[in-house]
């Protein structure tokens, strides 16, 4: 029983982190119909930014993540505004190819700048854990989980309560109508992409705090984000967090009752079953597919 | 798929050397390396090892082959850490007439290459492919300077059996699920049983994962005295980190094959890395010397002077592979692949890497592995006793 509870708790915490990794990917896909294959590279780049400011001035990663978010926001905004926007009206394969190219370039640039060595952002507390009866609550993961929940709630507030957020959703639902209402679609797209990259940067810093990273990890995070985004569903800001929690729990439970190497198979099985029962994901709204493009 | 094709195409644009094997005054050697992709770190160290070998041999005027001194000219190509690309590159070298090959990094790449080498009548010296599978297929043209995979965890088990006081009773293996790691685990479990340990059933996880929490939660209740990870660096770091998070503290300690000898291990884990045992193909206290590299200490200072970091065993095994090929060409008095092959099969030499002599399957089974322990942030040799730099600290988890 203790090990079941321990696995469940760990899976939930891990799931929160997975949700944070995927939330930006889901946002960009939902609003712009861009499957951003460079998302994992943004995550790892964020980890390097968090690591670098920690290395230079000893900044705690839970503050460093804001630096990572700012840097990645700027990069994401610029990339979307002056590069991806050029082809955003093209077929989805063009943006797929473009972001794939970006992924290769960013990963290789990190390889050159930081080498392929594994790194981790050192803190005095992230590896400690709280005792809760017989089970342990790892402190770093608990904090990362908290960040994930706060970020998701903030994102929900942003898109529902602010003019900027509403214009993001409006552009996602019907770009032509949004333009007629005076929304600058180019700016809104760049803003959305910037926010997504910034969130990826925060996620990266969290990964660097509780785990390890190197440039080669990027593609793994992209794939993971893809699975979580599809599972949770697009068009709902809670989608990524819920998708992440489901994957985290399934992996934790599978790890307890099946041979360890089956974990991934089971996670994908859950994805298949969910897609059969709910084709637009657990909490997704399929508005993008139904919208008119002029 | 598009990716691997595109990258393979990129990788093939390197300049061809002037002439093929043995023409002119150079000895052309082909080396496919994992310079990008998942194994980029180890690939780069392998390249350093090959490069230092070329520099050392050429500094002495080259390899004396049949009355002439030939300069080594190693041609590098990037296989992007993919076995199929590594195998294709060996084919491309063959098309250019390059018959003498130095292997890529890791068992998967080397295994893919070995099949092509055999078919093309080339000769390869393997620097980092330790999986016993490579040597169980009857290949006659692949020779490995390193100890076989079964020794990786076995050496740790033997060191614990010999030196640990109080002697632990139970051992559990946590293993990645790739071929190499599984072979390591099987070898380690067999040795542990022979040494009288209670061996619990092993836990496998996906190779390359950074989350091994499930396995740790499963073994926590069994209270093993020793946890041995048959892992690469990333899973090895995850075991130590997550064991702390989950409060898994074996009474004896941790052992983790190849992770601890890598400097990133202690750098990343800090104090948590203390006293973790690891196994290494080579350490700077290895006995033996040769005419190009001198002894192991000299080798260490040469790597530091040229590349600005301490020598890792990845550097050393690459240099040793290149050394074996060079010495074989010299004793064959020819660059013909058949003659070099026969010379390799007959090679019996001391070197900075220890003894190099191949058994009929092509493995260097005469070389022991060293066991290292992280002490005060540095990997020091603790076993075998005659090469030990420091005494064995046990239990490793006492602090």
TrEMBL record, chain A:
It is a multi-pass membrane protein. Pfam families: BPD_transp_2. InterPro entries: ABC_transp_permease, BCAA_transport_permease. The chain crosses the membrane at residues 12-29, 34-51, 57-79, 91-114, 139-159, 188-211, 223-250, 257-277. CDD domains: TM_PBP1_LivH_like. It is found in: Cell membrane. Keywords: Amino-acid transport, Cell membrane, Membrane, Transmembrane, Transmembrane helix, Transport. Belongs to the binding-protein-dependent transport system permease family. LivHM subfamily. This is Branched-chain amino acid ABC transporter permease. The lineage of its organism: Bacteria, Bacillati, Actinomycetota, Actinomycetes, Micromonosporales.
